Amino acid sequence: MTTPPVPLPAERIPPGTADWRTPDAQRWLAAVPAKWAHPLWAVLALVVAIVWELEAGPVAACTSAAPCGTDWPGLMVAAVLLLTPYWVWRQPRLAVAGLAIGLATLAMEEGFSTFGRPSALGFVLAVAFTTAGIVHRLAVAGRQRSLAVEAAGPAVQPLPAAARTFRRGRLSLILAALALACAGFGFWQAQRVVDAYEERAADATKLSGRVTALDQGDEDADVLTVTADGRTHRLDTAYPEDFPVGSRVDILVDGDRAVLVAEPYDVFGWETLVLGGSVAGLAFLANGVAGRVRSGRLRRGPLPVLRVLVREDPEDSRTWVYAADDPGGLRPVLHFHSLYAFEDDDEREDHPETDDDSMAVVDRLKEVFQGGAPTPPLREAVLYGVPYAGAEVAFVARDDEDDDEVAVECSVSEVRPAVAGRRRRGPQSGRRERPSRAADEVAAGMTPTAGPRVWRAHGFSRAVGLFLLLVQGGGIWASLADGPSWTWLLLAVGVPWLVTAVATALTWRITADRDGLWVTGAWRVRRVPWDVITSVRHADDGIRIGRAKDSSVGISPAGWTWLERRLGHEPGAERVAEELRALLLLPELRPQEEAPVGRQGIPVGPPLAALSVLWGAAVLLLL
């Protein structure tokens, strides 16, 4: 029986407030970006393009005419490029500015010759693809805004008094100040090193000499041997490739100290601090300013209002919004994090919550660790503001079904549509997985067959296996390349697990026949008769088959549930688990024949382990 929503007192519903009904809400929800414009694809394209360009792009050599000193403008461009993928996801308008800075820098350095290099051309194409996706997302947000205004009608109302005093972005701005202060400290320290060098260089003797040797000194540092003015000098260098044996170099000699004019000082550590502090500071600063601007936009004047239903997720404090005529809370429309707003300081001190989305989950961590509270009931609410992807809103609802007090809450994160493909679409969907379909519902899509049924690794599962295979090969190379070290212990622990995971993800197989299941994992094929199976479930990106009086049989990983849902696909392993459960509960669906040996599967863990050993031996021989 469906529990009716907690009603909102009639006097708290402004006159003329329209119900946001399911047809209008579904039209709003249907106006979502196309799959190609999902930020994930743009971020992946940008990251690959930036890494490719950094790896393949030209690097200016250190010379006496152009020494390798500090390059603060270039460092700031690097900070913007590092931030841009994050902004593509969170701040699309700022991302456009970051992309423009990256393109302008590339054009100023190389001009039209940029198009002659594949890596630079790849970067340009990634920027174009990302920009197209951002423009499409912003256009869709404008469409959602128009649909929401149309559903709200002509009625507008002032924001509740408590919401007008609510301020956003305070914590982000504080964190931004701390991070930027760290960046400023790094800049100050680097400049001290530069100034000290320039003072000593003014009194030092400049000599020209020839590189006579290149070897490794203490701590694996490259050392140049330079003969100048009849004396031999040994100088550390970070870029030995710029100074081949026989080339001429300029050095500065100050007593017993000598340095290359081309490499006057080393402030890499301080530059790293400046870069890290700048990236973190600018990210927090952008979030704080954006929060202030959006919340300020709510307070500018009367706003459209919509009557809706809301429910708070007990797991992560997310507020889910439903259409006014959806008392069962079956189809969420949008979601955001929210916090209470108060009219006076006394009430605020009684509820000392933070005002940033990065901390909105903290209030519920205790309940989560203790197993969580039951799903709260739906509440009638009035939504203030125009909801669209990226907007900020406020709402009024009763604080609790047993309390007559009406609370005002303001969003502390952007409005996001409850699109298909999320791990969970609302708190009613369960804590970790959506409820499994009933066996009869699954059976309706299955046709009884005489021959064995076979389920095998699908595309997402194989993609996970290939990725882990690359990680395994790279890890073996990295660990063995430098000779014996403590990393070999990590190799001994990690490679067996990786071999098992790779073999499973690439070639797992489950065959159902008359008498039971054949489950092919990484190392063996196991027989599980029907009469000992107690349960079949999808868990932890795999399939678990429970057995009476024995441990369960598992296949994991069998895909990547989070990514599959994100991309709008039903997880393959979840579908297999549901069909196996239907066979378990409905014997008439089971195959009538026994599976021959050729259809029972072959484990590939042993040959993959042998290949891993051969790869490790090849690495040792090659290096």
TrEMBL record:
Source domain of life is: Bacteria
Residue ranges spanning the membrane: these are 36-52, 72-89, 121-140, 171-190, 267-290, 463-480, 486-508
Basic and acidic residues: bias regions: 430-440
- Keywords (A to Z) from UniProt: Membrane, Transmembrane, Transmembrane helix
- Residue span of region Disordered: 418-444
Q: What is this protein called?
A: PH domain-containing protein
Q: Which organism is it from?
A: Streptomyces edwardsiae
